Amino acid sequence: MQLWLIPFLPLAGAAINGFTGRRTSKTVQSAVAIGSVLLSFLWVVKTLMALMPLEERYVEHYFTWMASGMLQVGVDFAVDRLTAVMLCVVTGIGTLIHIYAIGYMHEEEGYYRFFAYLNLFMFFMLILVLGGNFLILFVGWEGVGLCSYLLIGFYFLKKSATDAGKKAFIVNRIGDFGFSLAMFLIVVVFGSLDFGTVFEKAKGMPVEASAGIITAICLLLLVGATGKSAQIPLYVWLPDAMEGPTPVSALIHAATMVTAGVYMCARSAALFMKAPIAMDVVAYVGLATAVMTATIGLVQNDIKKVYAYSTVSQLGFMFLAVGCGAFSVGIYHVVTHAFFKALLFLGAGSVIHACHHEQDMRHMGGLRKKIPHTFNVLLIAALAIAGFPLMSGWWSKEEILGAAMHHHPWMYWVAWVTALMTAFYVFRSIFLTFFGEYKGHAHPHESPWVMIGPLYVLAALSVVGGWLFKIPHILEPVFHGIVPEGHTEHSMMDMVMGTAPGFIGIALAYIVYVANPSMADLLKSSFSGLYNLLYHKYFVDEAYDATIVHPIERSSRNFLWKVMDAGVIDNGFVHGFSGAAQNFGDLVRRAQNGEIRNYAAWVVIGVIFVLGTVTVLGGGR
Amino acid sequence: MNLLDIVLALPLIGFLIMLVLPKGSASKLKNFALGFSVIVFGVSLGLAGAALQRPAAMTWVTDVAWISTPAIRYHVGIDGVSLWLVLLSTFLTPISILLSFSYIKDRVKEFYAFLLLLEFGLIGVFISLDFFLFYVFWEVCLVPMYFLIGIWGHDRRIYAAVKFFIYTMVGSVLMLAAILYLYGKAGTFDYPALLTMMQSGKLTLTHVEETLLFLAFFLAFAIKVPLFPLHTWLPDAHVEAPTAGSVMLAAVMLKMGTYGILRFCLPMFPVAVKENSGWIITLALIGIVYGALVALVQPNMKKLVAYSSVSHLGFVVLGLFCGNQWGLDGAVYQMLNHGISTGALFMLVGFLYERQHSLEIKDYGGVATPAPWLSTVFLVTTLASIGMPALNNFVGEFLVLQGATQANVWWAVIAATGVILSACYMLWMYQRTFYGETPESVAHHVHDMTAREWLCITPLLALMLWMGIYTQTFLPSIGASNKVILDRTQTTSAPLRVAAPVVPAAEAANHGN
Q1: B270 Cβ partners below 8 Å, 6+ apart?
Q2: Residue B373 domain flag
Q3: Closest residue by Cα to residue A271 from A208, A322, A203
Q4: Set of chain B residues whose Cβ sits within 8 Å of the Cβ of A553
Q5: Contact between A557 and B297 using a beta-carbon 8 Å cutoff
Q6: In a 10 Å sphere around its CB, with 0-12 CB exposed, 13-18 middle and 19+ buried, how is residue B504 labelled?
Q7: Is the ipTM, as predicted for this complex, more than 0.95?
Q8: Alpha carbons A211 and A226: distance in angstroms, whole number
Q9: What's the CA gap between B134 and B26, in Å, rounded?
Q10: In this structure, how many other beta carbons lie within 10 angstroms of the beta carbon of residue B67?
Q11: Is B66 exposed, middle or buried (0-12, 13-18, 19+ CB in 10 A)?
């Protein structure tokens, strides 16, 4: 089926723009960038049509990548329904965002560089979802991290941008530390990294023999996932990643890359189901992240920061689902989230574009009439994420709440409150941006159709996507035999209860920010301690700097380098040793003072010494 | 006289021709050295065919008497490991010559002559199968490098050159003593003969003898690697050396140590290796983390890369002493990888130096604007160095860490922190050098890559990708050779264990004399 063409096309696009971009026109560059992704999307569609109904895994092996000892790792691509869903999301949304970016990036320096990176990202993301073994997945995993680094730091003249890029890379590296250790253990336990082999063996393993080591593997995989998918404790890079251009935030830091951790966990469902403790940890981490970052999102003023924390929070929901054993529900939310969160970011980009690069919502307001199309689509996206009935977010959120209830009722209630906060903060952003009076100084203008067009497509998907693509149903063959059949019945009461937080959140936001605009300040001043804590993001970055980053740097410089290396080893040990040699040499040199009589005396003494020794020791013979 | 002898002899011939060429025309001298070394590389490629067919055994063997008493033989040959190290030497020599074209302005003739002599020594080290011969080549390498640093180096070049020389000499004197002791016991310098005698039981070493001999060899190799805490000559040597010197030193000369461990220590002293691997691995792990942490805070680019070498070579030593196939394969692969990617890093730092005449990171910033391609190439090399998958280093690191996990998972945990830290120090340096606003002096001095520079770096970039993606070219032969070594370690150690109670008896018999 030539699966390799799917990632190769964007790679070719990246190569063409990367090498020739300085000499070609923007039209050519756009055509190459979008053409390559669009062709890739079409190839995905064609391939999937041909592979229907795809109930078994379809594998293509190209060549051996590494072979050492008993380990064989091939360059293998594989497609099952899980991969198929991800392929459609990545190439479909990717194409839309590429088109949008033509308009958004039109004025920017380094236009071709941007598209080369973006295409390269598509290449690695497609490798990630196509990989037939852990190591190929890891290639994509690291590759998307690299592209994320490059694109966050796209405005490389700005220190804050390159700092953010570096932070993203390094925090992800910490996650990858866990991921790679998990892989080493998988090889030791299963003798392979191939998904088919590993999961087959895992299924057959008796629980008592495997529980400990598989729990360790799954927890290490989770460490990897917390890095890539921005979960506690490694979520800190994602809010900073908003330094990148907005299409990047939409594509990489909302719709696709950050969901890779969820995908990886779902992919490894066969392992996770053998490790109930690890599953619980996944659920706790997801839930804690969802709550914590939702609270931060309540008070941020930068529109992109609000959506960034929202992304982290929504990813927490996905992990909650995965931790509750509802893997397909987690992927369901990946898909619907990709629709509405990409739309939120691109819509925010359109707002920012309209306001001449203003991102602070306090300098917006009243934009409803000035940029009506953007308002329409953002409103739809907000309704979708808030869980307005029958819109895409509603479907997946209902399922997640159901899974949480099934797992632990208290988790359900925490998730319920978080859903309420979600509706609140997202409508806060809508109200602050589009309602009231305009408080900025720019002359807002609507974005061109090349940007608005993709927004309407995403808006349509945000409305009907959840209903149209019933992911849990589609994914049934993937998790069949791994996850026990859950009851998917929802009572009317459940639905009402699940829908309520969305409405309550929207209503509260309306009361605070539209009906009663002074109330926000009142709340801020009466709970100023709490407000500050949230506004400063619980001081987590500061805590990491103070407890990890600075101590490492300071002790490396002041102790390891200056004391240990230069002082103890080099000055003390090496020079001490050579100094001793020199002193000894000086001592010996004194004997060679050039006076013949002295030499003669030494010769005599030597002879006497030798003869004496021989006489004393060898005298007996 | 087979192809291997020719490959060995050619650089020496080139060196001798260089000596008699007239001093006058610098460009003729340069072109001769370049052309000659390219020919050597071309000829050396011919070795691959036969060596890859039977990588487990020695091929291209020549074994003739050199000096009759003491019985020193000219015995050379290559297997699947030494093949790649020879090719690494012949591959990097022309590149080092080419990259010096604008850098070296005085004593042109001697400079290129020394590079060819160095190549001769390096090839000799990697193909010698006679201990005395090995020792001679080991010392031959020292001389040209001493002069490369001492004559064409920076301000503190004499200090660095002497330090480099003395450090290495201390080790090699011990190695010489060990070689002579073995000769005294066995009456031969011939390495395969010694191994056969050991296997057949004709030559037995007491426990103390084996330990001391192992330590003598190991110390010589460990200084060369360099293993923590014997590394402090390396940053000084690198900082002071001219670019070509740094490239050859990092890329090839450091591998003499790890190659020595693999070729001689592991097969000859299996028991001592087993007993001592604990503290050696501890030092390797300390080196990995320590080198990375110290690299983090270096203000000087070359020092930073030098400390990163300490960290990377720690991985190699870790792999060598894991005692399994993954570890050995990864270690050898990592030797080659480090040669390519660190060689490239030193080369690129050299390119920057030729523009801005500084190695201090603070004298740069915003280089990406005036020199976008240089920045791109530097980034790719950086990524290779920090182990990005699909580039070369990842494969080696992965296999070493896999071997470590197999042996003791905590070794892998500690070593893997070095992978995190490598991203920290390299990306931080990259950010400070290439990103941000461009200061006046950088904008004024730093231009993008020249055609000659492209010619130097492109082969290395191509190899980074090739070795990262299509490992099948390299790994099967490395694996086959390593398997022989591994089998020897394991089979030799097994009977020795059974015979362990006999050893004290033999010792007692010795004392009776």
Answers
A1: B488, B489, B490, B492, B493, B496
A2: yes
A3: A203
A4: 296-297
A5: yes
A6: exposed
A7: no
A8: 22
A9: 34
A10: 11
A11: middle
The verdict on residue B198 lying in a domain is no
Residue B396 lies in a domain: yes
Q: Is B289 on the interface with A (CB under 8 A)?
A: no
Closest B-chain CA to A213: B409
Place of tokens 């490959």: B7
Q: Indicate yes or no: CB of A65 within 8 angstroms of CB of B163.
A: no
Distance from CA of B258 to the nearest CA of A (A): 20
Using the structure block, give the residue that is written with the tokens 């003491």.
Answer: B70
Q: Does B378 touch chain A (CB under 8 A)?
A: no
Domain count, chain B: 1
Residue B381's domain spans which residues? 278-483
* Residue at B354 is within a domain: yes
Tell me, yes or no, if B368 comes closer than 8 A to chain A by beta carbon.
Answer: yes
Q: How far apart are CA A414 and CA A401, in angstroms?
A: 10
pLDDT in tens, A139-185: 999 999 999 999 999 999 999 999 999 999 999 999 999 999 999 99
Residue A172: closest CA among chain B residues belongs to which residue?
B420
pLDDT, tens digit, 9 for 90 and up, residues A425-480: 999 999 999 988 888 887 888 888 988 999 999 999 999 998 888 888 888 888 88
Distance from CA of B217 to the nearest CA of A (A): 20
Give CA–CA dist B71/A492, Å, rounded.
Answer: 96
Q: Does any CB of chain A come closer than 8 Å to the CB of residue B171?
A: no
Q: pLDDT tens digits, residue range B161-211?
A: 888 888 888 888 899 999 999 988 888 899 999 988 888 888 888 889 999
State whether B471 and A184 contact (CB < 8 Å): no
Work out the minimum CA distance from A67 to partner chain B, whole angstroms: 7
**Is A533 exposed, middle or buried (CB count within 10 Å of its CB: 0-12, 13-18, 19+)?**
middle
Q: What is the number of other CB atoms lying within 10 angstroms of the CB of residue B445? A: 15
